[in-house]
Amino acid sequence: MKLDISEIPFSRFGSYFCVSQEKDSGEIYIRDVHGGDDAPSKLFKLDLLQDGVEKKFDILATETSLRFYLVEDLEKYAEIIIPEEDELQLETKGVEVRLQASKVKYDTLHEYEDGMYEYHIYPKELKLMISKLSGEMSVHAPWNVIGNDFIDIRMKDGHFVMESYRTVFKPKKYGSFEAGKEKVEKLYQEWLENSTEKNEVYEASIDRAAYITWSSIVHPDGLLKNYAMYMSKLWMYNIWSWDNCFNALHLGANYPELAYSQLKIFIDTQDESGAYPDFVNDKFVSYNCIKPPIFSLIYEKLMNMNDYFMEEKRLREVYESTKKVMKYFELYRTYEGRLPHYKHGNDSGWDNASLFHRGMPVEAPDLASFLIRTHDILAKFAGLLGEEEEAKQFTEKADDLFDLLMKRLYDEKGFFGRVGKDAEKIDIRSSLILRLPVLIGYRLDQKVMDQLVDDLVENFETKYGFATEMPSSPFYKENGYWLGPIWAPVTYLFVDSLKSYGYSEIGEKIREKFLNLTLAGGMAENFDPHNGKGLVDTSFTWTSSVFLELLENK
């Protein structure tokens, strides 16, 4: 695959290093994604020089190597590989690479030994060792009391290494550039063969999705005790709850341990209240927003695809953790006589959906549906674990919540929400989120389910699938995040529900539309529902995982 590093960063499995190009300026940056997307990621701006003069260059990027070559002489180039998780190597031939540090006040670089420089990066609590294995390297980094005024590193006609670490540098022997290149190519081919099936029609999408999922994984570090798949290494480099489940789903068949790790991240950081974090990275855990429960729904599917997830200890861990989540919603998100509520649109994952335009808190039918389905699944898990009394209790809770949902949030026009301390009926009904009770289609009367499906087809279906806001709505907005664009995980939930509860034809139709959407818009965070253009972050793992899952499970 020819990689466009302005859309998909160059990286590899397990590494925090990546290289990307700014779309507006065209500038190339070597970056590091430690600390999540609130931390600065740019390490060095990269340019090619000859005789001290900047030269124009083109880029040839594949899944495993990144070459910058002079427009006027293709034999003169610099090439980057990431042969080890914390090791970036650079080779230059006939050109000089200039690296200009994106430093802040206390960032400092000093000579460690001949041909070796240690760079302390304060905001990231990270150190780099930059070493010359062969060739010429010069450094200009004038000192000014508390740090370098600037850092300018030149590398020419040789082999150079940049290695990251937290505290102390541990010397080691480095292999040849070619050996490193061969190693990472082998690793990627193994991933490609194990995670995808060949399909000529969707070959371009498969290539993108396979690479994005592989290259967006980081190794255990800090708060991350297991390998973790970030949502992206472009902009959104955290692991978000809810999102992580769709990545786990696709990994489950061939990489069960890695799949379970994506769930374990949140089980291990679960608050004593029962809430899962909103997101986690190697340095930080945030509980600002609490997503609706989906772990058990995904785990049930994982159990059906791989016996690894049937193991009692693992099932018990998910079961007990999910019980705590449900207790959180019962104790801290429910006013007496009402359904559990959201405190912000971000709680739902549908940040700016029109349902939330009247204020907070909001009783929403999607949250009730997730909770009902989770109680039903917990009843099943309880049975498997021999907890018969608890199984009955979960079924009773599901029954009670379902009755309350139909009483409080449904009328002859369909589902709606309630807002504020007086639980006023929300008059805005144009968001796709209000149609998510398809998740409990097995509980809904046929008439109600038919009404939901007819509504979906008549008011939300577009060329590429279900828009998240009715295109006819005054709230619909082009590139409006949850006010129109199509999202992969929501599409998966609708496709799965429609095909599971008697509406296979429309479910298959939406599935095929989404597969075709990726040919138009790649693996973006979300998509224009009419022209398929990829929007916001153009290198997203949950889109990639959903695409691969829908492709392989017809």
Automatic annotation (TrEMBL):
GO MF annotation, one: Glc3Man9GlcNAc2 oligosaccharide glucosidase activity
Domain Mannosylglycerate hydrolase MGH1-like glycoside hydrolase: 237-543
Pfam families: MGH1-like_GH (PF22422)
An example Gene Ontology biological process: protein N-linked glycosylation
Stored InterPro entries: 6-hairpin_glycosidase_sf, 6hp_glycosidase-like_sf, Glycoside_hydrolase_63, MGH1-like_GH
UniProtKB keywords: Glycosidase, Hydrolase
Entry annotated with the keyword Hydrolase: yes
Keyword Hydrolase assigned: yes
Family: Belongs to the glycosyl hydrolase 63 family.
Name of the featured protein: Mannosylglycerate hydrolase MGH1-like glycoside hydrolase domain-containing protein
Organism in which the protein naturally occurs: Neobacillus bataviensis LMG 21833
Lineage of the species this protein comes from: Bacteria, Bacillati, Bacillota, Bacilli, Bacillales
